[in-house]
Amino acid sequence: AAKSDVKEVALVVDLAYGAGATEDNVKWKIEPATITLSGDSETLAGVNSISLDKINLAAVDEALTETYKIVIPNDTEVTGGEKEATLTLEIDGLYKRTVSIDSSYISVINCSEGYQAELMSSGLDGVVLRGPEETVKNLSEVNIRAVADLKDFGTATGIVSVPVSIVIDGTTEVGAVTTEDYKVYVNITKD
Fold it and tell me: What is the mean pLDDT of the segment spanning 74-99?
């Protein structure tokens, strides 16, 4: 029969840093921090931690509390019976500034061949930038632009709502907080 074993493993989250959030300013904890698994010793040998989720920190405003089901490997069980874990996370010490991006700083790319695209929006309001205070405060509006990518629109015509990515030139410490998508309207016509 397979040899069984007991092992304590850490519960973790995979963090994608962004919009000013880095290892230095993100604090998180998970309750429980570890669980004890029992089961097949070979299976357990390959498990050192269990990731509850992958979190894109650019999409987190300042804090997050989330409860997850703990998904454990086949052929194992949790000796203490825990089924859920709660993550609390906060992003600390960053400064936020809301900017508008004028239409002259919005570009439309990847329009299909034989089609033309015209930006209908006069600009983009309410874009929240986040990063270290000095950098965010001193950021000039000419370094902030938006890119609307039409690659997924194929041969669509008419006025469409296109998600944009916000690009900050000259610094990697600042980014846009994307708790929701930023969008612009583009009119696509056939040549």
Answer: 95
| Spatial distance between the Cα atoms of 152 and 46, rounded to a whole number of angstroms | 40
pLDDT at 180: 82
CB neighbours (10 Å) of residue 14?
A: 10
Question: String of b and e for 93-103 (b: at least 16 CB within 10 Å)?
Answer: ebeeeebebee
Instruction: Please give the structure tokens belonging to residue 165.
Output: 């990515």
Give 1's pLDDT tier (boundaries 50, 70, 90): low
> Model-level pTM?
0.80
Tell me the average pLDDT across 50-70.
Answer: 95
* Cis amide bond preceding 32, omega within 30: yes
CA 46 to chain CA centroid, nearest Å: 28
Contact 43, 68 (CB under 8 A): no
- Beta strands 123-131 and 175-176 are antiparallel
* 140 residue type, one letter: S
